[in-house]
Fold this protein.
Amino acid sequence: MKVKKAVIPAAGLGTRFLPATKAMAKEMLPIVDKPTIQFIVEEALASGIEDILIVTGKAKRPIEDHFDANFELESNLREKNKTDLLKLVEETTDVNLHFIRQSHPKGLGHAVLQAKAFVGNEPFVVMLGDDIMEDTIPLSKQLMNDYDDTHASTIAVMKVPHEETSKYGIINPEAEVSNGLYNVNNFVEKPTPEEAPSDLAIIGRYLLTPEIFHVLESQEPGAGGEIQLTDAIDTLNKTQRVFAREFTGKRYDVGDKFGFMKTSIEYGLVHPEVKDNLRDYIIALGAELAKEDTAEKK
């Protein structure tokens, strides 16, 4: 069965970005001039996804507005012949999007469970907004290609520093089936470095079979008192195969302030409108900081 649907959980409170996210959706924070969630939607479309469900929560209405038509703005840009800006605005409206609200933030697993009626009896992709992925073939498409071969759930993983395993779900790989595709013994949610079975961390892209919903409906709360998707995947793995696909492209972690700032700078350095000025500024700033360091050492 062809994978046609994607689910984007976007109901989190965004506490790492307070006070900016007190009344604004974290997913609408821009990387230069594009909201982070638009990168995720663009990856889904580039992968061949036809329908996207965004699971929202309180203060997330701007996400819906962003992907809706704005006739007044479009008319204004059209009248002033600002065709480039008009094209940018219209790009966000030609998407088959659906929305559902997660009334109570009970964890990622609970957010995914809200998509049961939308997904039906089909395989689907889950895409988290904290990770922007770059590769020749979009990561979601890589998982979809694996599904065409295996007809099984496949989770994206990436090697992380061993001391950081407590930040992620970690896989215990059994064997490499093919280049970069692993059989998995079990999945562990946020193990300490001493307990981590590997350095392969789950990184925010999942291709799941619909049987995951039966697991999530009876899943007990795990780490943090929340219904963890990793725990449900580990349970699913006991009854049907779940693979892991190692991602070797570029991952931008925009889930915390420093990662967000690094991503903004890197994208700014290739953005046609600001790249030259930003590059000159960074060079000048580096020289100034070097002078200060030299003066402090004297």
